[in-house]
Amino acid sequence: MNSVSENTVPTALTIAGSDPSGGAGLQADLKTFSHYGIYGMTAITCLTAGNTQGVSEVNPIDPSFIRQQCQSVIQDIKPSVTKTGMLFSKETIVAVADDLATISCPIVVDPVMVTKRGDILLSKNAQNYYIEHLLQLSDVLTPNIPEAELLTKEQINNSDDMEQAAKRLLEMGSKSVVIKGGHQKESKNSNDLFFDGNEMIWLTSKRYPTQHTHGAGDAFSAAISALLAKGKSLRQAAEQAKQFIIHAIKSAPGLGKGQGPINFSL
Ligand code: PLP
């Protein structure tokens, strides 16, 4: 992993989509960065019309303009860490990979594909572009279970399957992985799995009964990014980010008519 840069304050660039309701996407990333005292920057990949009830429309930004945004940031303020979120199209994945190849900082790839409610955030079959272009650039890959299944092309039914998937994702090129287990609704616990090729660690907490988890996956990856920017090890970043998410879900403000946002103001 590249070392973090020596800015006066730690900085983070998120290359992600906009959620106008403020709970997910780049808005969740920026709020999480601020929580950790990180100076956040954005390259916007697409605009969504979305809220706590779903995403009704996606308006993608031209990939060449996404690159222009990335370059204007990078040439001015060096990111201590870079995170990718919703990329939406194959063309954007390729363009972003080209930019990431020129960036010398830790890279966190959140392979955003579909919302908890089933709205599509990645075009059909574009997961193969993640496999070809982004996995080998990622220091940390943070899929949820459906995303890990699409990337590995294997079903995940239990914790053994999750461990196999983590190993497979490293074989496929990622340097470490945090598989977010929040989608296992039938389980009493919320079990996330960290693997860096050396240590495999379960991050376990009681499942808190709530519908207010909109953006929790984005914020988990953003918290890992922020903690890496602060110089934490991969393992520390994963463990501390998990604690942040537990508290942010427990104290969710209860906004909106659907799955409300978590609490970023801890
Ligand atoms: N909107 C945007 C722009 C996102 O990037 C994401 C997740 O990455 C979502 C919505 C999904 O939010 P959730 O599934 O947590 O409700």
UniProtKB/TrEMBL annotation:
<dbReference type="GO" id="GO:0008972">
    <property type="term" value="F:phosphomethylpyrimidine kinase activity"/>
</dbReference>
<keyword id="KW-0547">Nucleotide-binding</keyword>
<dbReference type="Pfam" id="PF08543">
    <property type="entry name" value="Phos_pyr_kin"/>
</dbReference>
<dbReference type="InterPro" id="IPR029056">
    <property type="entry name" value="Ribokinase-like"/>
</dbReference>
<dbReference type="GO" id="GO:0005829">
    <property type="term" value="C:cytosol"/>
</dbReference>
<feature type="domain" description="Pyridoxamine kinase/Phosphomethylpyrimidine kinase">
    <location>
        <begin position="19"/>
        <end position="263"/>
    </location>
</feature>
<protein>
    <recommendedName>
        <fullName>hydroxymethylpyrimidine kinase</fullName>
        <ecNumber>2.7.1.49</ecNumber>
    </recommendedName>
</protein>
<dbReference type="InterPro" id="IPR013749">
    <property type="entry name" value="PM/HMP-P_kinase-1"/>
</dbReference>
<comment type="pathway">
    <text>Cofactor biosynthesis; thiamine diphosphate biosynthesis.</text>
</comment>
<dbReference type="GO" id="GO:0005524">
    <property type="term" value="F:ATP binding"/>
</dbReference>
<dbReference type="InterPro" id="IPR004399">
    <property type="entry name" value="HMP/HMP-P_kinase_dom"/>
</dbReference>
<keyword id="KW-0808">Transferase</keyword>
<dbReference type="GO" id="GO:0009228">
    <property type="term" value="P:thiamine biosynthetic process"/>
</dbReference>
<dbReference type="GO" id="GO:0008902">
    <property type="term" value="F:hydroxymethylpyrimidine kinase activity"/>
</dbReference>
<keyword id="KW-0067">ATP-binding</keyword>
<keyword id="KW-0418">Kinase</keyword>
